[in-house]
Design brief:
The complex is a heterodimer of chains A (133) and B (732). Chain A contains three helices and nine strands, in the order ββαββββαβββα. Chain A is α+β, with helices and mostly antiparallel strands and 133 residues long. In chain A, β7 and β8 form a beta hairpin. With 732 residues, chain B is of the alpha+beta class. Chain B folds into seven domains: 68 residues, Ubiquitin-like (UB roll), CATH 3.10.20.30; 105 residues, FAD/NAD(P)-binding domain (3-Layer(bba) Sandwich), CATH 3.50.50; 67 residues, FAD/NAD(P)-binding domain; 64 residues, BFD-like [2Fe-2S]-binding domain (Arc Repressor Mutant, subunit A); 136 residues, Gyrase A, domain 2, CATH 3.30.1360; 89 residues, Aminomethyltransferase beta-barrel domains (Alpha-Beta Plaits, 2-Layer Sandwich); 85 residues, Aminomethyltransferase beta-barrel domains (Elongation Factor Tu (Ef-tu), domain 3). In chain B, 20% of the residues lie in helices and 32% in strands. In chain B, the strands form ten sheets. In chain B, strands 6, 7, 8, 9, 10 and 20 form a six-stranded mixed sheet that branches. Chain B is elongated and about 105 Å long. The chains are: A alpha+beta (133), B alpha+beta (732). Chains A and B meet through β5 and α3 of A and β6, β23 and β31 of B.
């Protein structure tokens, strides 16, 4: 597996209802350029982007932190097929979709779009994933 | 199978085989036995034909097609197969994964009928048959079936499974059952079909159709012969009768091949055909080998029974009957019958566990990964300067950089860097953040001012210490918490559990793998920080957010080493830049990084405990001498009730400091007083600064003495810290 690329973004932790609104930007084209939203948990959103993006709303508390702890590989369909051979849980059928679990025994995530996918993990695990794939 | 006759190698000799022969049939055709003796079933059920095939031990030769050049070595008649040193890297065994609607295991009559019926009903059916090369060897939750194929391993997740694996034939248990020349009825039929001669054959039980043999009447008593059977003894009307023979064909009944269905007892799995049939058990054996795989005889069963192992599962564990290569397929009917004769009821078959058949370690480990250990962003930096890395708390960490005493001195005398990126790091925020932390910690969090930090213990409901770390207040409603490297994962689960339980308005973000951290420590640490642009670093137990070279950093002043120390938390992708800059600027100051070996020594001189190393599962603050970390004036915190209840009770345990002359004893060394062991040493170090060995250790019996014996020497019991007890250096 080739070396991963550093991902930059923002981590937002807030009440689930707040993140529901934030994550429900109606169309990907409505998002600021190059922003990918990954809902890691009900109260945890990872926005992958370059440059500055700030999620703002009134009257609600949140934690917002710059996030550079993840690295990733944008995969072609052929590369995704290879990665999937190391996944022993069912992938979601919908697109786009986020899937999280062990890949080749390493905690990792797959962001699945129609024609490509992003495989990501924390930088601390990147060497293991890279070697095992 | 081979299309033409050829030759394979048996024990170094070339042996012919006919088209369609398995190795076992070819060996019998040559007048020999694949295992020197024992009843052959030629159906893969027993372990009586196993041999080493092309370097792999315990291969069932009855399931192995003979082929040119195949190398077969029989296992020794007694003892284990020879060990071979591995030759190069073993070939990787691939895993194919499939999803299936309905899987039918077995392509016999009932399996084929079930598959056809399911297909007519519109089901998508996958049929797996060992004889066709796909042998299911394990069933797991899912249900997930693990099968061995000629290409590798197959993992199938099925919605439903039908087991149609048929029945195995009962093997004889009596004296002489280890001789050659004994065949089950099906084996005899197979040999007959293959054109193998069975001279002077007699049959016990119904004779197989089309196999020339002389049927005998009466009960089987024993076989006689030297290596190969020459006579069989039967009992009829109270009299023994000896019949000369060259082959004995045994048709003693059947038992279900139900090992897979017993593995998947709670799964959507059904059993049909002979595999589901309740065949009668054979007569209880009275003499001879019951489990040929493990060499367990009737006498062995009696031995464990007499010792009180009076259930099937216990008999199995104590005697090892059923734990061999056939996993009880041959012996279990006999063991059940033997127990039934003693209890009056046949026990249910014992629990079946993967794998049902002999598989290689490579097959078992195919696609199985070792635990993944994390690397800090400085991993490469550590290796570049010769660090010896080791695994701690799920991370690779530098144990030392070649000279732990030099690293120790750098901390005590100059300045040093430690990679503490592995510490747990969490942000807690929200309107109820203070209330949440007040309940979580035994310290009074409300009195921590913004910009200040405090060391805190984390307790469970029983008042036992489960972790420790720092609480840094960043705003009225926002905190940064740190936890130990190994405890961070549990601490997060602990906090999330209580957040949900209490229903407080509080948010939690794990920053452990997003932020790296470098500990700058030593009497010249402040000087180093000034040189990289931090002229006014925070004072003891203060912390600030600032920038270093354009990098956002969170700087905390604390001390684990006993010297002035600042932890610099920063983004992981900038860590190498910071590390290199600090080392470069610090060169004139005598800087060098320190590993865990030095760190453990430094903190021991200060008497700082390491949770999990110096503590035990039931360690309370009082036992650690850390009551100062608990504020019992608070109305509630986790563990408060337990601490209040036990506070008035006498305690027999105390973690103490110990000093003695000479070398440091091995950690774990017993602590004794007047010949009685009172506890053990948890940490030890021969301190260059103090000129003696310093230790932490448990005393587990009151009254606690002032002197004890450790490693045959006298040690003084003392209260840590051993080094700079006033803490002047840490606060300097």
């Amino acid at each position: 597996m080739r070396a991963p690329e550093q991902l930059h973004g923002t981590r937002v932790v807030a009440a689930p209802a707040i993140l529901d609104e934030l994550a429900a930007w109606p169309e990907p084209s409505a998002l600021p350029g190059g922003v990918t939203l990954l809902r890691l948990a009900a109260d945890d959103l990872l926005m992958i982007h370059q440059g500055s993006v700030k999620a703002a709303w009134k009257g609600e508390s949140s934690i917002q932190e710059k996030e550079s702890g993840f690295v990733g590989w944008w995969l072609t369909p052929e590369e995704l097929d290879h990665v999937v051979t190391h996944v022993d849980w069912p992938l979601p059928a919908d697109r786009p979709a986020l899937a999280q679990g062990l890949i080749a025994g390493v905690p990792a995530k797959l962001w699945l779009e129609e024609d490509r996918a992003l495989l990501l993990c924390t930088a601390a695990y990147a060497h293991e994933l890279e070697e095992r794939l | 199978m081979s299309a033409e006759a050829g030759r394979f190698v048996l024990d170094g000799r070339r042996l012919p085989y006919e088209p369609g022969d398995t190795v076992a049939i070819a060996i019998v055709r040559a007048g020999e036995h694949p295992k020197y003796g024992g009843t052959l079933c030629l159906a893969g059920d027993c372990g009586n034909c196993v041999a080493e095939v092309d370097g792999i031990a315990y291969v069932r030769t009855c399931q192995t097609p003979a082929s040119d050049g195949l190398e077969v070595d029989r296992h020794p008649a007694d003892g284990a197969p020879a060990w071979h040193e591995p030759q190069g890297e073993p070939a990787e065994i691939g895993v194919e994964r499939e999803e299936a609607d309905l899987v039918v295991i077995g392509a016999g009559r009932s399996g084929t009928a079930a598959a056809a019926e399911a297909k007519r009903a519109g089901r998508q059916v996958t049929q797996l048959e060992a004889a066709q090369g796909t042998e299911v060897v394990a069933v797991y939750a899912g249900p997930t079936l693990i099968a061995r194929t000629p290409e590798g391993m197959l993992h199938i997740r099925a919605k439903e499974v039908v087991v149609a694996t048929g029945a195995a034939e009962i093997q004889p248990v009596c004296p002489g059952s280890g001789l050659a020349g004994l065949l089950t009825a099906r084996a005899a039929a197979k040999l007959q079909a293959a054109g193998v001669e069975m001279p002077n054959a007699v049959a016990i039980g119904p004779a197989p159709e089309g196999v020339p043999c002389t049927p005998l009447t009466g009960e089987l008593v024993r076989f006689e012969g030297e290596g190969r059977v020459s006579a069989v003894v039967t009992l009829e009307d109270g009299a023994e009768r000896t019949t000369s023979c060259g082959t004995v064909i045994l048709n003693l009944g059947r038992s279900p091949r139900d090992v897979l269905s017993r593995m998947g007892a709670d799964l959507p799995m059904s059993v049909i055909g002979s595999a589901a049939e309740a065949f009668p058990l054979p007569p209880a054996p009275t003499a001879g080998i019951v489990c040929a795989c493990a060499g367990i005889g009737v006498d062995d069963l009696q031995g464990v029974w007499d010792r009180g192992f009076n259930e099937l599962e216990l008999v199995k564990r104590a005697s090892l009957a059923g734990t061999g290569t056939c996993q009880g397929a041959a012996c279990m009917p006999h063991v059940r019958a033997w127990i039934a004769a003693r209890t009056g009821a046949a026990p249910e078959p014992f629990t079946a566990r993967p794998a049902s058949r002999q598989i290689t370690l490579g097959e078992a480990g195919a696609d199985v990964h070792l635990d993944a250990f994390r690397r800090t962003p400085l991993h490469g930096e550590h290796l570049a300067v010769g660090a010896q890395m080791d695994r701690f708390g799920g991370w690779w960490r530098p144990w030392n950089y070649g000279d732990h005493l030099a690293e120790y001195r750098a901390v005590r005398e100059a300045v040093s860097l430690g990679d503490v990126s592995t510490l747990g790091k969490f942000v807690v925020a929200g309107p109820d953040a203070v209330e949440f932390l007040q309940r979580l910690y035994p310290t009074d969090v409300s009195t921590i001012r913004v910009g200040r930090s405090r060391y805190a213990l984390l307790l469970n409901e029983r008042g036992h210490v489960i972790d420790d770390g720092m609480i840094c207040r960043e705003a009225d409603d926002r905190f940064v918490l740190t936890f130990t490297t190994g405890g961070a994962g549990n601490a997060e689960m602990w906090m999330r559990d209580w957040m949900e339980t209490w229903g407080l308005n509080v948010l939690l973000l794990d920053r452990t793998m997003s932020l790296a951290a470098i500990n700058v420590t030593g009497p010249r640490a402040a000087e180093l920080l000034a040189r990289v642009g931090l002229a006014d670093p925070p004072r003891f137990l203060q912390h600030v957010h600032t920038e270093l070279g354009g990098m956002p950093v969170h700087v905390m002043r604390l001390s684990f080493t006993g010297e002035a120390s600042w932890e610099i938390h920063h983004p992981v992708d900038r860590s190498v830049d910071l590390w290199r800059a600090l080392l470069e600027v610090g060169e004139e100051l005598g800087i060098r990084p320190h590993g865990l070996q030095a760190l453990f020594a430094l903190r021991l001189e200060k008497g700082h405990v390491i949770i999990g190393m110096d503590t035990e599962l039931d360690t309370t603050p009082r036992r650690l001498g850390m009551d100062w970390a608990v504020n019992m004036d608070k109305p509630f915190f986790i563990g408060r009730d337990a601490l209040a209840r036990t506070a008035s009770l006498p305690d027999q345990r105390r973690l103490v400091g110990l000093t003695m002359a000479g070398d440091a004893p091995t950690e774990g060394t017993p602590i004794a007083s007047r010949g009685e062991v009172l506890g053990h040493v948890t940490s030890s170090f021969a301190s260059p600064a103090l000129g003696q060995a310093v230790m932490l250790g448990w005393l587990k019996r009151a009254p606690f003495p002032d002197q004890v014996e450790v490693d045959g020497r006298t040690a003084a019991v003392t209260a840590p810290p051993f080094y700079d007890p006033e803490g002047l250096r840490a606060r300097a």
